[in-house]
Amino acid sequence: MKQTSISRYLILCVIAVVVILAGCNNNETSNNESSGSDDDRMELRVFVPTFSTEPPTDSSPVLQAIEDYTNKNISMEWAPNSNLDDRFNITLSSGDLPHVMYVPSKSPSFISAVEDGAFWELSPYLDDYPNLSQANDIILNNSSINGEIYGIYRSRDLGRNGVIIRKDWLENLGLEEPETIDEFYDMLKAFTEDDPDGNGEDDTYGMVVSQFEGPWDTMQTWFGVPNKWGEDEDGNLYPFFLDDNYMEALDFFKQLYDEGLVNDDFAVMDPAQWSDEVIAGKAGVQVNVLDEGHRIQETMLEGDPDNDDPITVINAVEGPNGLFNLPTSGYSGMLAISRTAVQTEEELAEVLDFLDKLNDEEVQILAENGIEGRHYEMVDGEYQSLADEDQNLQSEYDGLNQMLMYLPEPLSLTPEATELRQLETDLMLENEEIVVPNPAEALISEIYSRQGQQLDTIVLDARIQYIAGQIDESGLDEAVDLWLQSGGQDYIDEINQLYQEADLE
Amino acid sequence: MEEADIKYNQATPDKKQSVFSRIAKEKWLYLMLLPGLIYFIVFKYFPMWGVLIAFQDYSPFLGFLGSNWVGFDHFQYFFSNPDFLRLLRNTFILALYDLVFFFPAPIILSLLLNEIRITLYKRTVQTLVYVPHFMSWVIIASISYVFLTTSGGAVNELLQTLIGREINFLASPEWFRPMIMGQIIWKETGWGTVIFLAALASVDQEQYEAAIVDGAGRFRRLWHVTLPAIRSTIVILLILRLGNFLDTGFQQIYLMSNAMNRSVADVFDTYVYFVGITEGAFSYSTAVGLFKSVVGIVLIVGADRLAKKLGQGGLF
């Protein structure tokens, strides 16, 4: 009797566990079932980043219009851009991959997932689709893993980097736009010391830099430092910080810092506040992507409508070795197709057809501008947004453009170009002439996959510490030695081997 | 299984009977225990098998069962890595600082509170010092930034007028540890007094009266009555603290670290995050985490033994 009651409890316990586990399973299967049925349309789950806190929901009329056009049932899986890498890795490790997955970079986890067969290799298929077949070969190669394409890149301008300058400050001080590094320095000096805003107070400084390392990367390129990898006379690759011009660039940065031409809290400044310093009239220069120029200008105009043209942009200034600029990689992430959700070639063809159609003018306009009459209207052939003031309308389409690849070109509507926007577009084209390519862009190093972030941190932290005077030249050498010992030397050897193999092909 | 049961049954019939009859008698209590038991099995013990990926070359796509076994490779790589000594040093120094500077703080504060005779004032202070505990580290980090920044932070403005120069607290390695300690003390001291105040409340008032009759002053009473009364509480909390010795608090360190102070700010917790979550090296970071846990167990058992040797009641 007593024994039976005990075993009854045990059974109860087992049942409870089974029910809980079964409950988990049930959820999954029922999800999958519902994704199969619903009319005849293929169910597509799409994982992309969002910059907005209220991205479009699956019931958004814009998303429904895209569904109708592409004949798919789309459910969006938004990942906040601020913790994109975490979300990407966690989604990978869940094993439950969406059909279309945004891949932020060729990160070690993406590469190892590719090696384990998580994504489709797309190169044999792309030619069958009118838009996808027009992808740029160089950028495709940049985004490939040793020549194999595991995701369709989202096209971006190669020459986006530039310098944003307070135009009215230049005029107040009677200065011209700088053309050389020396003139750039003089401008920063004047912005700091000569009271460019004319209020009689010492409340301005030259250039604002944040924790984000991009500006240093761009500016060292002006000095002739190579983009990540340089090539010596014998055709061997070496990392950028072993270049002769690197020290010269760092000494220039250090001088800027020592003389107070750069904000002294740059190493701890939140990148989200980066542009605020320019908008608030504290800093006069920002090295950033060119299109930030009009965003800063438009925000400034909201606060001070009288100052009607406060910003200008230039692409780069000339260094001792010529005029160079740092390119972006030409793409911003890729859209990969998972093998777990898309199992057959027929399904793959459907997904590729969907991705191809996303590049059609109709879909580009839908995803970027919304629906005509609801989110925008055409006045005398010019685009005018109707959603600027209306958060709810905006959240029906804002962010859907993260799905777009813009192949072969952007076709969405843009407002009538202001002078500044036009200048930015022109400079981006000009930049393509002076950008320095990275010879190792497409090469995937195993060592870098494993230790890349630690290696990068050693060098990048040392650069910041040198600029801020925390270490001297010998400290910099120590950091390089540490880099070489921590796997850097093997990394150099491996990259050179890959480079020569790729060259032979 | 059944055979064993029967044998067991024959060998010690009395004991078994009593256990089962006790269970049967209190069956409703045991039934109520069940949800808790299931919770621990499903959410604590079952996932614990996950640490096995420390010995695998785990690939999320292949899954737990499909990944290759690599034995102690990840541990070997970790111990031979130049990062290891730096992480160990940073973590140990922060943990030691924590023990030396933070651990006594709630004890001192609760002793001070205990001496207050005006009940209303005491209660008010007690409640107010709890408040920082309920703020998240994100908020405390932001407050620190606002106060300590060199571009218009209140502290540096003050320093400028007092000593004529600014100190870059946020971006210098030598100020990192004091800053972290200051934050912890500010945030957690008040909350830490809860247990000590409870222990102090149970001290026999007659002992104080006896001490007064013997002519003991306030300080004597504190030294000879109050402190011995809460000694065992202090020891237990110290042992528990040693179990978490290497837990330096991921959020706080992560939020306060930057390129300028990384040489002292990198600890095991942040390393596991950077390598494991952002780089996706799950196996390797699990190995690092496992190493940390093993050190934690060794410390907690060691401290317990030591406490017993010194004549204090331990945990186990």
Please describe what this structure looks like.
- The complex is a heterodimer of chains A (505) and B (316).
- With 505 residues, chain A is of the alpha/beta class.
- Chain A folds into 3 domains: 42-156 and 330-413, Periplasmic binding protein-like II (D-Maltodextrin-Binding Protein, domain 2, 3-Layer(aba) Sandwich); 161-326 and 421-443, 3-Layer(aba) Sandwich (D-Maltodextrin-Binding Protein, domain 2); 445-505.
- In chain A, 45% of the residues lie in helices and 13% in strands.
- Chain A is built from 17 helices and 13 strands.
- Chain A has helices at residues 2-36, 61-70, 84-94, 108-115, 137-143, 167-173, 181-193, 214-222, 244-258, 276-279, 292-303, 345-357, 361-369, 391-394, 419-434, 446-467, 473-504; strands at 42-50, 72-80, 100-103, 152-155, 161-166, 205-207, 229-231, 237-239, 283-289, 311-314, 331-337, 376-379, 382-385.
- In chain A, helix 16 (446-467) runs antiparallel to helix 17.
- The radius of gyration of chain A is 26 Å and the shape is globular.
- Helix content of chain B is 74%, strand content 1%.
- Chain B folds into 2 domains: 2-45, no CATH class; 82-140 and 173-309, MetI-like fold.
- In chain B, helix 8 (119-130) packs across helix 11.
- In chain B, strands 1-2 form a two-stranded antiparallel ribbon.
- Chain B starts with a helix and ends in a 7-residue tail after the last helix.
- Chain B is mainly α and 316 residues long.
- Chain B has 17 helices and 2 strands.
- Chain A binds chain B through residues 2-3, 5-6, 9, 12-13, 16-17, 20, 85-86, 89-90, 92-95, 107-110, 112-113, 116-118, 211, 263-265, 267-268, 450, 452-454, 457, 460-461, 464-465, 468, 470, 482, 485-486, and chain B through 20-21, 23-24, 27, 30-31, 34, 37-38, 41-42, 59-63, 81-83, 145, 149-151, 168, 170-173, 258-260, 262-263, 274-275, 277-282.
